[in-house]
Amino acid sequence: MNNRGRRNNFRKRREDPHRINEKIRTEEVRLVHDDGAEIVSLQVALGKARDAELDLVEISPNAKPPVCKIIDYKKFLFEQKKRNKELKAKQTKVVVKEIRFGPNTEDHDFNFKLNHAKSFLEDGAKVKAYVFFKGRTIVFKERGEILLLRFAQELEDYGTVEQMPKLEGKKMIMMINSKKKK
Questions:
Q1: Model pTM?
Q2: Structural domains of the chain ordered from first start
């Protein structure tokens, strides 16, 4: 395919998600308006839309007969986009921050990581704390569990334990959920 053909495909306009005006392909439609709904022929509905200087839009094409409404189509699409944008803005994304320990983590390192976890939980993120057992340190499973439980106890003012320490392969994992929501 030559470059010219690709460029033309790129510029093609996307088809409207609804059928409007003459693109509606049925004999009669259920016309919905403020007073209620009525079943009329397509020509009558198109005439009413032209008189109002608006568009006849097929809202529910699978209904028998299809449901149509007389509205300003461009305004309808704009409001629909705006509504979708607002819904998307209201969604919250869960952020998970990881903190890694070794089974022989000293107090200074523990406190340093504890302060980071406090700030993460204050920001509304989840904290995934885990002890990684390297090589033969797997024999210190109890130390890892004690370390994670101590970590959870120190953070009980900032978050709640979602998952107690659980060994998965060479990692002992614990999840802490923030008490403060964004």
A1: 0.51
A2: 3-90 (3.10.20.80), 96-178 (3.30.110.10)
